[in-house]
TrEMBL record:
Residues 205-376 form the DUF58 domain. InterPro entries: DUF58. The keyword Iron-sulfur does not apply. The chain crosses the membrane at residues 12-43. PANTHER family: DUF58 DOMAIN-CONTAINING PROTEIN, SLR1927 PROTEIN-RELATED. It comes from the Bacteria. Keywords: Membrane, Transmembrane, Transmembrane helix. The lineage of its organism: Bacteria, Bacillati, Bacillota, Bacilli, Bacillales. This is DUF58 domain-containing protein.
Amino acid sequence: MSTRQKYHGFGFIILLFALFSGSLFLWLFGAFFFFMALFTAWWNRRLPQWVQVEWEADQSRVMPGTPITIRLRLHNRSWLPLPGTLVQFSFPDHVVCEQADEVVMRNQRTFLRFHFHLPLRKSAERLFVITPHKRGVLWLSEAQFETIPLFGEESVSLPLPLSFSVLVYPLPLPLPPLDLTATEPEGTVVTRRHRMEDVTFLRGVRAYTLGDRLKHIHWKASAKTGQLQTRLFEPTASPKWKLIGHILPSYEPLLQKYNDTVNERTISALAALSVQCRKQSLTYELLLTVKQRGREHYHLHAGSGKAHHVQVMTHLAKLHQYGPTSLAAVLHRLEHQSAAGEMIMVVTPRLDEQARDMIERLARRGHRFTVLDVSEEQPVIRRFEQVGSASARKRKVSQQ
């Protein structure tokens, strides 16, 4: 029987005796049990307003394997004590916890439990350490609270609101030696414009010609002159890279293969390339073969510096539940949107024949490709000449 049923049973029996005896004391004593049942229900409803949980972490953005010290506070703002109080919450199974009262692994989750004994109008504090080992976002929206009631036998369980989130960046993958700043001399390629232009420094405008990018049109100057005007930028010797990440489907039914491991290796390689570009102060943009906001691929525009690096790492950390697209489709879009001579780095665990043909077409237009093969544990850098040699030999044999 529940506490409410017991109170009602005792009250009904006492009121029955009071009905036959006419005793005022029995009438009041029986009514007291019904009042206690109502008071217990009212207490349980009001308990979330009197009990509060506070959460403080010393870090909000970490790398995998970094310990995070958390300060947990539980406040009792009521005029009654809370003995035998239990606070419980859960993290993914890759999170290692220390200094918790109980740690239970269940359903690929790590449950942490803390025991408190709170006097009236007092607070308690606990310190513990968690260490995440995978990229992603650790977040909590509520904690489960249980306490032994003073006027009953059943423990009261209720959720307490809690706001906590930690962003875990992907761990950069160790890469073979790669010189991102190596470029060809300016005189080796015949071109009508500078090989590199710094869009942050404007040096003037000129009349629009067919083939200029729409985003480089100076609309205010065009409105003043009555003709379309194109921005002119200062030349720069710093190379600009396009980083293309090839993300495979999580599961391929035809191959009966899970690709989570190779996708994580691709994301870690992209993080390592972003770190190198940040250290060498290079301008780069990121393209991923995943659908993003109605588009067929994700595109982060070119940038450099700390803010751009943090934006790239944040998106790589939050990359979950994606819809993959074709690498050849992304390369085909570059054929119409990129200028000749741009340097492109493709990070892929699998390069099919259609993607190789697109790389050859772009290479004939003057693009320079570097393929980072992450199909194995140790990444391998393959220049385009090595990647496309097999198909080139096939065409040469067919022509003969």
